[in-house]
Hints:
Distance between the termini: 15 Å
Order of helices and strands: EEEHEHEHHH
CATH architecture: 2-Layer Sandwich
Strand content: 15-25%
Strand order of the largest sheet: 3-2-1-4-5
Amino acid sequence: MKVLAVDLSTTRTGWALGEPGKIETFGSFKRPAAMEDPDYLFYMAKNVAEKAIEGQVAYIAAEDWVRGPSATQMLRSGCLRGCVMQAVKEKGNLDCMFFPPSEWRKASGIDLTNLPKKNKRVILKQRAVTMCKGMGLDVKNDDEAEACLILKGLENLLEVGE
């Protein structure tokens, strides 16, 4: 069963295509410099939906974070998630599954030990990149790394749900 894993972001969205636990290909969509909200949100949603259709996936798995650094960031993030859900329904009637960061990080095997309270998110992103490079994946940024690890962790996440 093919899956598109996405690390949704308001500046760059990482994606990984494959089967749960098996990464076939990955990449990222970067926000065009001149593009502002809400055009960007629709642009990103369209790219994710098209990648899902192109990859002939059964569903999309995405990170689900419940709070962010600011109310504005959370509003933009929620709008992006809603746009993606609408786009995939319109383009292929696909389902989206959302996993909190704590769940997919644990399921992917990322090192969650010795995390300071300050800069925890930055350190986790660095660990995601390091882990992917250790798996032989030439990720270019933390968004690609986190999308790959969401896909890797799906194998364990789906076992828990069954």
